[in-house]
Amino acid sequence: MTIRFPDKSLTKTEIIKEIPNNCLAIKNIKKVVNQVGAITTYVNFAGCNLAEKIACPFCISNFQWNDKAVSTIEQVAETIRNFNNNHVTLSGGEPMLQASGIKKLIGLMPERTFSIETNGLYQFDFSNVNVYYVVTPKSVNGKFTAYRKEMDAPQVLFMFMVSGDEESPYYNLPESYIKAAKKSNKSVYIQPINDYTLSSSVSEINKGLWGKAIKASTKYNYARAIQLARMLEKEKVKYELSIDGQTLFGL
Q: Which of 87, 103, 156, 250 is the most buried (most CB within 10 A)?
């Protein structure tokens, strides 16, 4: 069963509240290669609490939170099972807008591990050890979303986006998160933004952008990440990207 809300947009946070308790607003579910090269079932949630304030330049969802279709939690779980992957990534949009439904979904699949990609503005649920959170600080009016003490938990990882544009709020990394990560010895990934919007050709990608990401990851000993799925979708070719003699990845 699929339910639709006519003449309404999930851009409005309050519309999320109209979703029935046994349903989730999902744009799509697919098998992808995630930012660190692992195969995962990617669940793209509709709705974002920041959509009315900012347009994140790195959002892989292309603002798909405007979709109005919702499906039952059982339908979503069955679709995920059909992909037969051990790991599931819940992203969006902002999946934590639908936290109660997500908890029910995870409860239906205790055999799988889950990562929830979030801006970190909602309370975490650490009751399930098979669930961890990947927090990406977002810039709102030139300031990053606030770090919270709750993020010190081992089930929380950080993903920092970095831009090569000096005018971008993502040119500098969020200091409060850097300090917190160092204090709690937290895993951190760093990813260049606009890796699939700068150009239709990999050979024309702004290498300054990639170089900045590499330097930042080296400085802080952070792991490097990339939106592989999106680039593969755009290029549909085999390629290798090297900068300053370092092979970032090869496919």
A: 156
